[in-house]
Amino acid sequence: MTEKNPKPQVSEEEPEVSGKKEPEVSEKKEPKREKYVYNGKTPPLNIFLHWCKACNLCIAYCPKKVLEPDRDGKPVLAHPELCNQCAICWLHCPDFAITSTYK
Amino acid sequence: MNNNGKKVLLQGNEACLHGALYAGVEFFAGYPITPSTEIAEGMAREMPKKGGKFIQMEDEIGSIAAVVGASNAGCKSMTATSGPGYSLMVENIGYAYMTETPCVIINVQRGGPSTGLPTKISQSDTMQARWGPHGDYTAITVAPSTVEGCFVEVVRAFNLAERFRTPVTVLADEVLGHMREMMRVPEPGELEVIHRNKPDVPSEWYRHFEITPSLVSPMASFGEGYRYNITGLTHDQDGFPTAKSQEIKDKLDKLQKKIMRYSDEIFKIRTDKMEDAHIAVISYGTVSRSVLQAIKMARERRIKVGAIQLLTIWPFADSKIREMLKNVKRVIVAELNMGQLVREVERVASRHTEVLPLNRYDGEVMTPQQILDRIREAVKS
Amino acid sequence: MITTQATQSAIVHNYLRPKKSFPNVWCAGCGNGIVMGALIRAIDSLGLDKNKVVVVSGIGCSSRMPVYLDFNTLHTTHGRALAFGTGVKLAKPELKVIVITGDGDALAIGGNHFIHACRRNIDITTILINNKIYGMTGGQFAPTTPGGSFATTAPYGNYEKQFDAVKLAIGAGASYVSRGTVYHVQPLERLIAGAISKRGFALVDVISNCHTYYGRFNKEGDAVAMINDIKKQAVSVKAAENMSPEKLKGKFLTGLIHEHDATEFCEEYQKLVDRLSGKER
Questions:
Q1: B91 at the C interface (CB within 8 A)?
Q2: Is C3 exposed, middle or buried (0-12, 13-18, 19+ CB in 10 A)?
Q3: What share of chain B is helix, strand, coil (3-state, %, to 5)?
Q4: What are phi and psi of C54, to 5 degrees?
Q5: Architecture of the B7-184 domain
Q6: Which domain holds residue C160?
Q7: What is the CATH class of B269-380?
Q8: Which is nearest to A92 in space by CA: A65, A51, A47, A56?
Q9: C11 close to A (CB below 8 A)
Q10: How many domains does chain C divide into?
């Protein structure tokens, strides 16, 4: 299991839910978007330094090494062109200090 | 019960139950304990019939927790227990004080401490009703002495709880809970029934613990469109935990002042033959019944004695009692414990009033003869 | 102000209390924040009305979560969150009650309320954030602290035995029992969404990291190292079917571990009320 694709197998058994409503996770997603390509202007990620506590999770888990720590340990967008919007950084941020402009 | 206005034979616990139904109770969570089990059993029968909610929780702590949760969800809630159960509940009763949640807890007292005497009477939880939970807060406690009193005082307890957004303890005892007596059931509308104040501001402006001019904040319930935080941590007016000294002081002042400011409307004292009395007998609960008889017997012997019955025990009516004891040379405080309320009387009595405790703590009721003997001793010395 | 067109990553801002000051109170890298994000995204995916969601918690680091969430929140006494939640749910069954609790809060002091809530199968969703230690009070051992680990009240190593919250819940009768981790965030979101949708008592046991105390006392490293360890020890239920017991040693199962259908407490009570009112009329 690589860091790029965290949990491929588990997704099959999740829909085993009985109850009033099926979780609408799959339905809410828009139809397949085109692959993200960095257009050189809009950064792929927004970093809110005021909420960031420099825990290092996003920097350590980024598979493409897009983020690098600055002097305080908080992330800085060192290589925005390498970002493929895998979502690992903002999914794992405990402080909601990093969000994506694409997803 | 369709006997409004007529006289019926009821048990004390049943009268508590019907008083609660008259007051509009909608949620009961309890755990069986002698001698209050009949209240829970009655609620199990009546609540489903009236569309209210009943649950027997796994312990007393769960019971009071469910009561506080339901009260915050909008229901008038209560529980009933005895000494050991009240001891278990005190943490969450303290939580109800801090979060200003209205609820009623009926404590049908029995002999203590610990498991004590499940089937015998005592009044030894008086101080616990005031100081049970830790911390600084002001308590309201009512104590009926007759079966009809049980009905009326439980309705009054609900009114006080809803009006002041506080838990209220009703102190009954084993004999009162299990005795059967004729009582007159009030008609619907005869006794006032108060509901909590609801907010009338848009949800963005609502503050669940707002320090209003009356010091009692209007109370929204879950699911009404107001979303707020309730916490047992000392909090500010929005309900967020705080460490600022001014906010802490404001909160604790509010908890005390909201009740003490209106204490005149909370006090309820019944007096008998106090106009020319040189000796007074202060009592509460079942003992008051014996005191009334003892006063009659003493007056026949031309002893100038009067009775003071406290129907509201906490907050203690300092100024009123001091006023009543102005011309009294000796005051006897009759209790079924080793001396709990007598400390309060000693505190407010002036130097020229001698306070004489009269205690019985062997599990039996106090007889009028015992009280009369004490009165005669007081006259002689 | 974020509009409804928010990207999935920013949707959390629609559900955080505007009056509360951020950043949150937890340590840097604490799994509690990750679980909060997963919970919010799960609630958003289900389209629940904010006014009808009640979040109840006990005492502990995990239980500090509700104050940040823009729902009806109730922060109660230690271990009693499920009892308070039972009162709220029974009083108003149309509210969605979610209980956030920790391993000490639910399994130690709150153990009794935990097993009875499972037994009643009351429609409450419990998110038990399991970091194997008592974090808020400074690192004492919990009923889930592994044997031999160090804690402030186990300075020579923990010689006590452990619970498994999932097995306890299954034994007590819960109808939806699952386990997630703070590494596998998207499966966690799906588990939480399934738990909320389930009509009955639902448990999501989230394996989380406390690098400030547990990690420091037991030399497990910082947040990144501990979460990597969690990832290594996690095995999905489906994958475990094809693995031998030697391979499963030292690992824990994740995913939906048990589910069954059973009558729910508030429904049964309502049936009784209907029956009695029908009888009298």
A1: yes
A2: exposed
A3: 40, 20, 40
A4: -120, 125
A5: 3-Layer(aba) Sandwich (3.40)
A6: 48-280
A7: alpha beta
A8: A56
A9: no
A10: 1
Please tell me the distance from the alpha carbon of residue B304 to that of residue B306, in angstroms, as a whole number: 7
What residues 64-83 of chain B have any CB closer than 8 A to a CB of chain C?
Answer: 65-75, 77
Q: Is A8 on the interface with C (CB under 8 A)?
A: no
Domain ranges of chain B: 7-184, 269-380
Instruction: Tell me how many domains chain A contains.
Output: 1
Q: Count Cα neighbours of B31 within 13 Å in the Cβ-side half-sphere.
A: 18
Amino acid at C107: L
Q: Which pTM value belongs to this model?
A: 0.92
Please indicate whether chains B and C are in contact, defined as at least 3 beta carbon pairs under 8 Å: yes
Selection from C250, C240, C210, C115 nearest residue C169 by Cα: C115
H or E element that contains B270: strand B269-272
List per-residue pLDDT tens for chain C, 281 residues long. 344 456 788 889 999 998 888 889 999 999 999 999 999 999 999 999 999 999 999 999 999 999 999 999 999 999 999 999 999 999 999 999 999 999 999 999 999 999 999 999 999 999 999 999 999 999 999 999 999 999 999 999 999 999 899 999 999 999 999 999 999 999 999 999 999 999 999 999 999 999 999 999 999 989 999 999 999 999 999 999 888 888 888 899 999 999 999 999 999 999 999 999 887 54
